[in-house]
Design a protein that fits this description.
Layout: H1 2-10, H2 12-29, H3 34-39, H4 45-55, H5 61-73, H6 87-122, H7 127-141, H8 144-158, H9 174-208, H10 211-218, H11 223-260, H12 266-275, H13 279-307, H14 309-318
C-alpha cells in the first residue's frame, strides 16, 4: 500500500510540469504584448523595451520557460504585474473564498444528488424516476452564468431575500456569510448536482440487480438495511469518483460564478489577470488549482481502498 501511494505521489511531478508548460505556451499565444498593455498606448518605445527586458520577455521562449521552472521549484512564483505583490500572497489571500464556494456547491450537490439518485433507482420506471431524470438532465444542461443571473433576478432583485453580489463578513456573524454564499453555490453546484444524481442512479440500479441483494431481500431483512448497508455501500465507489472529479470541475467553474456574483476569489482574480496579460499571476493560479485537483484525485484513490476490500487487496498485491 505504501509503495502504491509513493508511486501515485511521484506522478504528481510530471503532471504539474505539463500543466506549467501548457499554461506558459497558452499565455504566449494570447495576442498582445504584456508590456504595451501594462504601460498603456502612450508609452515610449524605449520604455516598453526596458520593461520587456526587466520581465525577461526579450529572451527566447525556451529560456523564459526554463527560468520560470527554476523559480517555481524554489517557491518563487514572481510578482504580479498588476498588483505589484507576490503571486503566492495574492493566491493565498483569495483562495479561501474559492474553496468556500466550491465546497459549499459540492455540499449542496451531494446532499441533493445522492438521495435523489437513490430514490430514482428504488422507484425505477415510475413517475419519480422520470421526474428526477429530467431534472438532472436540466441541471447538467443549464449554463452557470445564465442560471446565476436568473437566481439574482428572482431571489435578490424581485424577492429581496438574499444579497446579489459580494461576500459576507464573519465580523457580521456566520449568517451573513451563509446568506451571501447561497446563490453562487447553488448556481455553481447545479451541474454537479445533476451529474451526481445520474451516476448515483446508475450505480444503485446496477447493484440492486446483483444476486447478493436479492438474497438479502429473500432472507426478509429490513428494506432500509438492504438498501443502505448492502446496496449503497457497494455503489459508493463510482459515486466517490464522480464527487472527487466534480470538486475539480467546481474549482474551474468558480471562474464564471465569481465573475457573475462579484466574489473576491481566484476566479475573478484570474479573469482580471488574463484581460490585463498578467501572465505570472495566471500561471501561479492555474498551478495552484491543478495542485488541488491532483490532491483531490489522490484522496479519491485512498478512499477506494477504504470503501472496497477488493481494491485494498489489489493494492497489497501491487507492493
Amino acid at each position: 500500500m505504501r509503495k502504491f501511494l509513493f508511486r501515485r505521489l511521484l506522478q504528481v511531478i510530471p503532471t504539474l510540469f505539463f500543466v506549467l508548460l501548457t499554461v506558459f505556451l497558452l499565455m504566449k499565444l494570447i495576442p498582445g504584448d504584456p508590456a504595451r498593455v501594462l504601460l498603456g498606448p502612450e508609452a515610449r518605445p524605449q520604455d516598453i523595451e526596458r520593461f520587456r527586458s526587466e520581465l525577461g520577455l526579450d529572451e527566447p521562449v525556451i529560456t523564459q520557460f526554463a527560468i520560470y521552472i527554476g523559480r517555481v521549484f524554489t517557491g518563487n512564483f514572481g510578482r504580479s504585474l498588476i498588483y505589484r505583490q507576490d503571486v503566492l500572497t495574492l493566491v493565498f489571500d483569495r483562495i479561501p473564498t474559492t474553496l468556500l464556494l466550491s465546497f459549499s456547491a459540492l455540499f449542496l450537490a451531494v446532499i441533493v444528488g445522492i438521495p435523489a439518485g437513490i430514490l430514482a433507482a428504488t422507484k425505477h420506471n415510475t413517475f419519480h424516476d422520470l421526474s428526477i431524470t429530467i431534472l438532472s438532465l436540466v441541471g447538467i444542461s443549464i449554463p452557470i452564468f445564465w442560471f446565476g443571473m436568473i437566481l439574482i433576478v428572482i431571489f435578490a432583485l424581485q424577492l429581496g431575500w438574499l444579497p446579489a453580489v459580494g461576500m459576507g463578513r464573519l465580523s457580521n456573524g456566520l449568517w451573513d456569510v451563509i446568506r451571501h454564499i447561497i446563490l453562487p453555490s447553488t448556481a455553481l453546484g447545479i451541474l454537479s448536482m445533476g451529474t451526481i444524481t445520474r451516476f448515483t442512479r446508475s450505480s444503485m440500479l446496477e447493484v440492486l440487480r446483483q444476486d447478493y441483494v436479492r438474497t438479502a431481500k429473500a432472507k426478509g431483512l429490513n428494506r432500509g438495511l438492504v438498501l443502505y448497508r448492502h446496496a449503497l455501500r457497494n455503489a459508493l465507489v463510482p459515486i466517490v469518483t464522480v464527487v472527487g472529479l466534480q470538486l475539480g470541475s467546481l474549482l474551474a467553474g468558480a471562474v464564471i460564478t465569481e465573475t457573475v456574483f462579484a466574489l473576491p476569489g481566484l476566479g475573478k482574480l484570474m479573469v482580471d489577470a488574463i484581460l490585463r496579460r498578467d501572465f505570472l499571476l495566471v500561471q501561479g493560479e492555474v498551478l495552484m488549482i491543478a495542485f488541488f485537483y491532483i490532491l483531490v484525485n489522490f484522496l479519491v484513490d485512498v478512499l477506494y481502498a477504504v470503501l472496497n476490500p477488493k481494491i485494498r487487496s489489489s493494492y497489497r498485491g501491487a507492493q
